[in-house]
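DDE Tnp4 domain-containing protein: structure, please.
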Amino acid sequence: MAACDFNMCFIFTFPGWEGTAHDSRIFLQALRKQELKFPHPPPGKYYLVDSGYPQMAGFLGPYRGERYHLPDFRRGNHQVSGKKEIFNHAHSSLRSVIERTFGV
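Here you go.
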């Protein structure tokens, strides 16, 4: 598990889990273990998380059952419609920061 800021700098990592461990299990363990010093989001701020993470205060995941991935918006109907799709489109665009951070 890893978290990064918008400057593409990792602010938290939690390595050592097997590849089959579910995201929510790793995340909840990171929150519970005080010695890991997980950097909680400041009041009024949020961390973007993917759909494998639990929905809880301070963490924003995408709406399920709505288009999400950027290629989905490029195929067929290009229009983003409705509040949930607009949010998912923005969420997916912002999520690319973590993808690029891992790439760098």
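Notes: The chain has a mean pLDDT of 86.
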